[in-house]
Amino acid sequence: MLNGEQWSQLLQSFLEEGGDLLKQAEECLLVLDGDLADEEAINGLFRAMHTLKGSAGLFSLTPVVAFTHQLESLLMAVRDGERSLTPNLISLMLRCLDELGSMIGRINVETGAVEGNDEVLQTQLLNALAAEMGQGSDSLPTPTAPREGQVQRAPATGEGAWHISLRFSPDLYRNGFDPAAFVRYLSRLGEITHLEVLDENLPDFHQMDPEACYLGMEISLRSASSKAEIEEVFEFILDFCKLRILPPESSLSDYLQLIRELPETDERIGSILVASGLLTEHELNTGLTMQAQGEEPRAPLGSVLVEAGMVAPAVVNAALEKQQVVRERRAQESSLIKVAAHKLDELINLVGELVISAAGAQLQARAHGHSDFIESTQVVNRHVEQIREAALKLRMIEIGDTFNRFHRVVRDVSQELGKKIRLEVRGADTELDKSVTDKIADPLTHLVRNAIDHGIESAEERLAAGKPAEGHLALNAYHESGMIVIEVSDDGRGLNTARIRQKAIDKGLIDPNANLSEHDLHMLIFAAGFSTADSVSNLSGRGVGMDVVRSAIDQLRGTVEIESRPGLGCTFRIRLPLTLAIIEGFLVSLGGEYFVIPLDMVTECMELGDQPLIDGIYGYLNLRGKPLPCIDLSAHFDLPASAVRRRNIVVVSQGRQQAGLIVDQLHGELQTVIKPLGLLFQHLQGISGSTILGSGQVALILDIPSLFRQLQALVDTGASETRSVQNRQELLPRL
Amino acid sequence: MLELRHDTHQDPALLALTGSLTIYEVRQAHDELRAALAGGQRQWRIDLAELEELDSAGAQLLLALQRHLLSLDGGLDVSNPTADVLELLELLHLQSLYPDVLPAQP
C-alpha cells in the first residue's frame, strides 16, 4: 500500500503539475484573446484541461474533475469546430481557471480533499459557461449532457471495476468487425457494469460515411481477469482501435504493492509494469515504438505510457521508485563489498610473497639462459604486477571522508573560539591506503586545531591587518612522485619565529647562541614539550599536539614541512607513501650488498666518472652547472671501500631537494614487499626496511627522507668531515 | 436485405425498416434516409418490428440520424424492436435509441 508520505508526495507533484497546466492554459487563453481561431492555442488549452482532469481523477479530486470536465467538453467542441470562441467565453474561462487554481490551492496534501470548496461559485461559472455556449450554439444542442452523466456515474460504477476505453478506427466495420461482438465476448470475463457508446465524433448525418466507424466506448468491467486477459478479448481489433485498460481504482494500491513486491531482478520499467500486470506486452511494444518515434530527446518510457493513457502516473511512479531501489541496491552491491581488513592484509601479504617468488623465478630463468623460460617468467611477472596493483587498489580509499569530518571540527572549534572560519577542501578524491588514512586522521586534527587556535587571528586582528574578517582554512591532497601530499594551510598570522626561538631557549631546547635557520626554527614546534600559546586552551597549547603529529608522520614513513609567511599564513605539508606494504624500487649494490631505493624518488642515474667528490664522503658534484649534494653510500654505511672502477650516481629527489647517491652498480627496477625491520633495528637512520630478493638475498630499503635530513644536518653544521657513526655491523642483521 | 419505407404524412413521420441493417446495408440505408429527410420533417418514429438484424454500424447510423434530428429541434423515437435488435441496444446501452433499455445497475 502507498503510505501516507508517498501519497502526499504524489499529491504534491500533482499540485505542481496542476499549477503548471493552469499557467499553460492561461497563456493559451491569452493567445486566443488576440486570435480567437488560433488552433494551436485551442489544442494546447484542451490538452492542459484534459491532462489536469486525468491527473485529478487519479487522486479522486472529484470537484476538480467535474469542473475541468465541463471546460474540456467545451474545448473539445471548439476544437472540433462545433463551437466558436467568443471574447465573453474567454473571460469566463479565465475566471474558471482562477477558480481551478484556487481549488487546487485548497487541496489538503494530507487528506487529499479540496477544502472549503465553493460549489456555489463553480455552479455560477458553469451556468454562465452553459449560457454562453447556448448562444454560440449552431449544431449540437446538448453535447455536455451525456458527459455530465458520465462523470456522475463514474465514481459509483468505477469502483472496483476495470476501465476499458476504446476508440475505433474508421476502418473497423469495413474490415468485418462489429464492436458489439467484442463487447459480448468481454461480458464473459465479468460483469459489464457500465458501458457508454461515445458518439461525439459522429459527423453531420448528411456528411457521414455510413460505413466508417465513428464510435468510441467506455466500459467498466467488474472482473477478476488480468489486464492481459482483457486485452486478449480485443486481440483481433488491436490494429483497428486505440485500447486503454485501466485497473480498478480500488486495486491500484494493490498494484502498487505488487510492484514493490516484485523480485528485484529486472530493472527496466516496462518489464516492471508488465510483470505487475498493469501493462500488456502489446502496450509495451506500442509504447516503445511511440518512444522511438518521438522527437529527440526521447521522452522516458514511463511518461510515454502515461501520456498514451496506458497506465496511471501513480503506477509509473511506483515502478520508477522500484527501479530506483533496484538500481541503488545494484550500485551498492557493485561498489561495496564489506571485507574484513585482515583478509585484505592477508591477500596483500601473499601477493608480496608472490612478487618475491616471481622475481626469483625470473632470476633463475636468466641464470639458465633459457629463452622460452625467460619469456614465460616475464609474462608471469607482468601478471603478478597487475595483481599487485589491483590488490593494493583494494585498500585505497579516498581521503575525502577523512577531510569531511573537519567541517564539523572547524565549525565547533571556531565557534568555541569565537572566530569565523571557512574550510575549503580540495583533492578529496585523492586515494591512499586505508591504513595510512586511519593513522593520519589524528595528526591532521591536531594540525587543523592548531591552525584555528594559533594561526588564524581573531576577527578584529584580521580586520586591523587588512584581511577579511573570515579566516580561511584549506585542506588539500594530491599525488606527487608516488607520495600523497596533504596540506593544511591557513591565512593567519604565520609562525612567529622570534617567539618560537625564545620559547625554545626558555625550555632549554636550543642553545641561546645557536644560529638556526628559519626552517629549523619552524621545525622546533614539533619538538616534545614545545608550546607557544600564551594561554593553555582546551584545544591546543598544551604542547602535546605537535610532537604527536611529528611522530605519527614518522611512523608512516612520511615527512612534514612548514611553509610560513609572517602575517600571510602558514602551510603544513605532509608527504606520505601511498602504501606501507609494497614499493617500486630501484636496486643498486655496494660491493656485495644490495640496497633498494624507492623508485618514485629516483630522478636519474649517471656514471660518476673520474670526477672526485669535493669533500670526500659528503660533498658536491656539478650537475649541469648546479651543485648536487652527494653521499658516498659505501663510506656512509662504513662498507668496505669499493673495488669497482666505474661507479654510478643515483639522483634522488624529495620535494624540492635533490641529492646524489654514489653506488657501485645499478641493477634496475624491481617491485618489492617491504619487510619492516625488527624492533631492534628500528632506530637505524637511513634504512626504512628490508626486502628479500629473488635470489634469497636480503636488500635494505634506503630511507631517503632520513638520508636527506642527515645530509642537511651535516651541511648545516659544516661537519662534512664527520663520519657516520653507524657501523656496518650494527646495520645488517646477521643472516 | 433491407427494405425501408417511410410515411411523412404522419406526425411524427414514420419510418419502417424490414430485413437487416448492418454494415452491408448501411450505405443503402444512408442514401434512402437522406432522401426521406429531404421532406423536412424533424420528428420521426422508427418502427423496427420487421428488422431482424442490427449491428454496430447500423446502430451508429441510427444514432447519427437521431443526433441530426435533435440538432434540428426534432427527434427520433424507436419502437417495437425485435428480440435480436433489443439485445444489441441493451448490450451497447443505447438508451437514447430505445428508452426501455435500462441503464446497467452497478
From TrEMBL, chain A:
CDD domains on file: HATPase_CheA-like, HPT
GO biological process: chemotaxis
GO CC annotation terms, alphabetical: cytoplasm
The keyword Zinc appears for this protein: no
Pfam families, alphabetized: CheW, H-kinase_dim, HATPase_c, Hpt
Entry keywords, A to Z: ATP-binding, Chemotaxis, Kinase, Nucleotide-binding, Phosphoprotein, Transferase, Two-component regulatory system
Organism of provenance: Pseudomonas mangiferae
HPt domain segment(s): 3-107
Catalytic activity line of the entry: ATP + protein L-histidine = ADP + protein N-phospho-L-histidine
Protein name as it appears in the record: Chemotaxis protein CheA
Domain of life: Bacteria
Record-linked PANTHER family: CHEMOTAXIS PROTEIN CHEA, SENSOR HISTIDINE KINASE CHEA
Boundaries of every Histidine kinase domain copy: 292-580
MF term (GO), any: phosphorelay sensor kinase activity
Gene3D superfamilies assigned: Histidine kinase CheA-like, homodimeric domain, Histidine kinase-like ATPase, C-terminal domain, HPT domain, SH3 Domains
Function: Involved in the transmission of sensory signals from the chemoreceptors to the flagellar motors. CheA is autophosphorylated; it can transfer its phosphate group to either CheB or CheY.
CheW-like domain location: 582-713
EC supergroup of this enzyme: transferase
Record-listed E.C. numbers: 2.7.13.3
Region (Disordered): 134-156
Modified residues (Phosphohistidine): H50
UniProtKB/TrEMBL annotation, chain B:
All copies of domain STAS, residue ranges: 2-106
Xref: SUPFAM superfamilies: SpoIIaa-like (SSF52091)
Top-level taxonomic group: Bacteria
Protein name stated in the entry: STAS domain-containing protein
